[in-house]
């Protein structure tokens, strides 16, 4: 999925007003954007405001948005003017979505990539297609950057997941392309798989002032190593861990959570949040693969929640009285870092060996599955480009 990103001067992903948009029920295209929403008074969102006038409507979505950034995981392209997105993510899945639309302003960005002389000059077909993919990502990302005030997150090819220098080289390529489009580094963030090599790439890139987002995080070790590396954002897929736990056993981290009567995904998010705040890391925590409204309520206070359209619609359709707290209190606060108990093994300086030993079968399987999905998407884009090259009118 993708990501809501901060304005250039902020370390958060979207403006501090914590705005999201009222969504429609039309089918969405594969992309993720942070969207604007009419602001509510903070006191009303917190549930401790005086009784509101009859005309004031406060929804559950209004209330929860007072504690965490609520990020829709889909958006309809036609709604750009209507809903004014503040930030966006560009990925292989987005390129596939653009290519599948009969008419969109972004198609010219893909056509321009396919007409690129530098790519055309490459002898090997696989190198040529990879070049087209990189150019297309940057072209579409630049178009988005000129339409949103916040930052654009760009997915790094998952085929580079175990190649630190390859990841860094690709990020530098994209940075150069964005610079040619007059998009500055502070408007960008790069989405990298949380392998050890990806975490190392994040550390080196962050030291250059390039902000990174570590994805496919399914274990405490991955998240802790990413935070130590200085990653700007770490993303945990809580629902996928829950699904794994329902059908498997033998993962020490998940088994420990289940023995305590906790949900595996929610428990990991809480633990990582506590770890980040205990150690004062700059990393922001994002959760995805949200399955229901209760997940949202259980994670209030976390930095960012990517929620499916149907859950956001359900939250928006549920009207609540601002006087009724209804549990609208943060479940996660920075103070949790002072009270959470970590083992000595969890507080080590993580390296490749310790990370590998601590991953566990759930993280290993889910990481591999996620990478496979991203690789397949990239290949589908390249196959599509091979069929439509050269573009019309070129």
From TrEMBL:
Family: Belongs to the transaldolase family. Type 1 subfamily.
The protein's Enzyme Commission number: 2.2.1.2
Recorded GO MF terms: transaldolase activity
InterPro entries reported for this sequence: Aldolase_TIM (IPR013785), TAL/FSA (IPR001585), Transaldolase_1 (IPR004730)
Lineage summary: Eukaryota, Viridiplantae, Streptophyta, Embryophyta, Tracheophyta
SUPFAM superfamilies in the record: Aldolase
Pathway it works in: Carbohydrate degradation; pentose phosphate pathway; D-glyceraldehyde 3-phosphate and beta-D-fructose 6-phosphate from D-ribose 5-phosphate and D-xylulose 5-phosphate (non-oxidative stage): step 2/3
A biological process from GO: carbohydrate metabolic process
CDD domains: Transaldolase_TalAB
Protein known as: transaldolase
Gene Ontology CC annotation, any one: cytoplasm
Claim: NAD is one of the keywords in the record: no
Keyword Phosphoprotein: no
Pfam families in alphabetical order: TAL_FSA
Record's keyword terms, sorted: Cytoplasm, Pentose shunt, Schiff base
């Amino acid at each position: 999925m993708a990501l809501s990103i901060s304005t250039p001067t902020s370390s958060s992903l979207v403006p501090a007003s914590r705005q999201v948009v009222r969504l429609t029920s039309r089918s969405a295209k594969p992309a993720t954007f942070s969207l604007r929403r009419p602001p509510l008074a903070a006191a009303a969102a917190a549930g401790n405001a005086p009784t509101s006038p009859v005309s004031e409507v406060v929804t559950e979505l209004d209330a929860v948005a007072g504690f965490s950034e609520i990020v829709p995981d889909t958006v309809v392209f036609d709604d750009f003017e209507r809903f004014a997105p503040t930030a966006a993510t560009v990925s292989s899945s987005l390129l596939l979505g653009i290519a599948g639309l009969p008419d969109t302003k972004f198609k010219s960005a893909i056509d321009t990539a396919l007409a690129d002389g530098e790519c055309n000059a490459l002898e090997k077909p696989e190198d040529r297609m990879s070049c087209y993919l990189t150019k297309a990502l940057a072209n579409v990302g630049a178009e988005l950057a000129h339409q949103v005030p916040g930052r654009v997150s760009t997915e790094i090819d998952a085929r580079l997941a175990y190649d630190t220098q390859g990841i860094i080289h690709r990020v530098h390529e994209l940075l150069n392309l964005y610079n040619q489009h007059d998009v500055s580094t502070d408007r960008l963030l790069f989405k990298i798989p949380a392998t050890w090599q990806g975490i190392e790439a994040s550390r080196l890139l962050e030291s250059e002032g390039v902000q990174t987002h570590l994805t496919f995080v399914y274990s405490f070790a991955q998240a802790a190593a990413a935070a130590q590396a200085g990653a700007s954002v770490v993303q945990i897929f809580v629902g996928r861990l829950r699904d794994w736990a329902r059908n498997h056993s033998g993962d020490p981290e998940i088994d420990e959570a289940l023995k305590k009567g906790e949900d595996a995904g929610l428990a990991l998010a809480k633990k990582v949040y506590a770890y980040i705040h205990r150690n004062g890391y700059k990393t922001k925590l994002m959760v995805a693969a949200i399955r229901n409204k209760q997940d949202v309520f259980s994670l209030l206070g976390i930095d960012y929640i990517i929620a499916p359209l149907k859950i956001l619609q359900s939250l928006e359709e549920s009207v609540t009285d601002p006087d009724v707290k209804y549990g609208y209190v943060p479940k996660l606060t920075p103070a949790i870092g002072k009270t959470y108990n970590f083992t000595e093994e969890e507080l080590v300086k993580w390296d490749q060996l310790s990370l590998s030993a601590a991953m566990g079968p759930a993280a290993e399987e889910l990481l591999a599955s996620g990478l496979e999905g991203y690789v397949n998407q990239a290949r589908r884009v390249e196959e599509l480009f091979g069929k439509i090259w050269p573009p019309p009118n070129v």
